[in-house]
Amino acid sequence: MKFDMGGSAAVLGAAKAIGEIKPPGVEVHFIVAACENMISGTGMRPGDVITASNGKTIEVNNTDAEGRLTLADALVYACNQGVDKIVDLATLTGACVIALGTSMAGIYTPSDELAKEVIAASERSGEKLWRMPLEESYWEMMKSGVADMVNTGGRAGGSITAALFLKQFVSEKVQWMHIDMAGPVWNEKKKSGTGFGVATLVEWVQKNSSS
């Protein structure tokens, strides 16, 4: 869990830093989709169909892909706050680590403008990001016979299909980016988190302020 909560840790770290800096002219919401993850008699099972807060139904075909289910509701909640832009961070897939290694995170967004902003912020912070494709044809792997979608699409393109899953819970009116940071969030030698993502978020928010 010290690894798996890396995305939430980055959000909380950014909240602390931005709260102290107080950049003028920008409103920032920090949302963490925290919940209990212990096994219990009420836990979800393979084959369950659950309904997200936006009404879309999800067939659970992999109970280990549970984080994206809570993140989906967090994205719906964020959109309902009337925000203009959303950046979510999560240690979402091992597939992204296989693709990019442990030194950089993969980013997914349909917005070229937001990609340019966040990549520029990462270059100022020294954190490495690489833009990945949101290949819509891969959505075929996410289709279900009993629900709107399944929660995982298999091994091939696993980081891409995970991002496509999250995209189903974001309003088209909102500029959105997903950062799959499973690689650089953890230092295996030190057995500790790296704090990856905090500096980029702080740089991005400061650049968007009126200062």
UniProtKB/TrEMBL annotation:
<dbReference type="GO" id="GO:0030145">
    <property type="term" value="F:manganese ion binding"/>
</dbReference>
<comment type="similarity">
    <text>Belongs to the peptidase M17 family.</text>
</comment>
<dbReference type="GO" id="GO:0005737">
    <property type="term" value="C:cytoplasm"/>
</dbReference>
<dbReference type="GO" id="GO:0070006">
    <property type="term" value="F:metalloaminopeptidase activity"/>
</dbReference>
<dbReference type="InterPro" id="IPR000819">
    <property type="entry name" value="Peptidase_M17_C"/>
</dbReference>
<keyword id="KW-0645">Protease</keyword>
<dbReference type="Pfam" id="PF00883">
    <property type="entry name" value="Peptidase_M17"/>
</dbReference>
<protein>
    <submittedName>
        <fullName>Putative leucine aminopeptidase</fullName>
    </submittedName>
</protein>
<dbReference type="InterPro" id="IPR011356">
    <property type="entry name" value="Leucine_aapep/pepB"/>
</dbReference>
<keyword id="KW-0031">Aminopeptidase</keyword>
<keyword id="KW-0378">Hydrolase</keyword>
<dbReference type="GO" id="GO:0006508">
    <property type="term" value="P:proteolysis"/>
</dbReference>
<feature type="domain" description="Cytosol aminopeptidase">
    <location>
        <begin position="62"/>
        <end position="69"/>
    </location>
</feature>
